[in-house]
Amino acid sequence: MTCGFSAFRVRCPALLNDLMSAQVRFDADLIRRYDCNGPRYTSYPTAVQFHEGIGEAEYRAAATASNEAGKPLSLYVHVPFCASPCFYCGCNKIITRSTEKAETYLGYLHREIALQGALFDHSRSVEQLHFGGGTPTFLTPLQLGSLVEALGSHFSLDGTSRREFSIEIDPRTVAPPYLADLAAMGFNRVSLGVQDCDPDVQQAVNRVQPIEETLRVIDSARNAGFGSISIDLIYGLPLQTLERFDRTLTSILAARPERLAVYGYAHLPQVFKAQRQIRTEDLPSPSTRLALLEMTIARLTASGYVYIGMDHFALPDDELVRAQAEGKLHRNFQGYSTRAHCDIIGMGVSSIGKVAHLYAQNQKTLRDYYAAMAANRLPVLRGVALTQDDEIRREVIQQIMCNDVIEFAALGSYFGIDPGHYFATEFARLVPLAGDGLIDLRPGRIAVTETGRLLRRNVAMIFDAYLTCTAAAPAYSRAI
Predict the structure, then answer these.
(1) CA angle at 56 for the pair 50 and 61, rounded to the nearest 5°
(2) What does pTM read for this prediction?
């Protein structure tokens, strides 16, 4: 439903001007007041609401329904392996140097690709493909190439320039020939994990990665023909200071990547075992964390990057910026996207997909994933089927998180509701946020302000029917 509603909204030319000119205003006092735990809204309902009442039968039914709609497809493939642990990481990963372990996994993954491909009409074009991890480049070019070949056998991969085929790479694991191989496979976007360029910080998080190595990979990717390069950084890591992170920003900005994602480090050693290697006393203070964020926003926007939202920045001609200006930006488990109209098929251990009105997540351990594949069953562990109320709230939350504006007339017309009546309780709860300058609340329209753009999650949480005041969300990260 997102596609139809967004398409309606793009007809408002004033909105385009508002979105193109909007950046972000940093208000440290306001951020401190609103910095609570909350969802990142890569889905709604969020993964906390997933349950094991959703299994293979429900997924197959959703695939049948999605074929009737005939939307294009997006594929996500999870490669869980890493050769060594990065202490800050909270991803679903398996630390190993065993190529044999990877071969076993790939054998089962090929089986899942065949099972999934049989569910979806071959006429449906795959416009988007993303390999995430773990470390996808843990695999050899030959192994990765065989996976892409299998995907092409069971799905219709888009071979035109419209495609967005991306892969996460660890610069320490790839040489120029590898990047050329990736380009030959059809990948046209790469995301590089960097996190910080300072040697002391790198040592503290067990990810030593000389900046010269990173810059060589960026140059090699461009020489190989990649049209978009994204860099991941993290603020709030141990031993970070304003001076050190400023040097990191200077080094990365010199390379002029098309996109930057700058995440706040969430220290949860009780959840993520590797984080126990990080000394709490080495972490920046809360005030330093805020200063790091403020400096980052100031430097990136002064360098010509547009603040997309959450942790993401992009150059003005990037398609994320254009999509946001047109009210078509979307958010899913891979972050911000321009493919709101696609059904997402998740493959591999722990991967998540969105097919028709169903979110579904695969088995989270190799043992359970392998058992399902050995029995020739789809490895669906859990998920959630969206109700009509979920669909309505999901659309509102998407527009807050992505496009900053909700037009009541469009919302009411598309869903057949009276927004003022339907969200009477929520609108009352928005009044204090308007008083604090996070939103512009007026008849027929809610707009997130430049001050509120850093606190979009707090605005979105008002519309979350599953979030209670008492559920102080240990399952969620802090808003900033």
Answers:
(1) 95
(2) 0.92
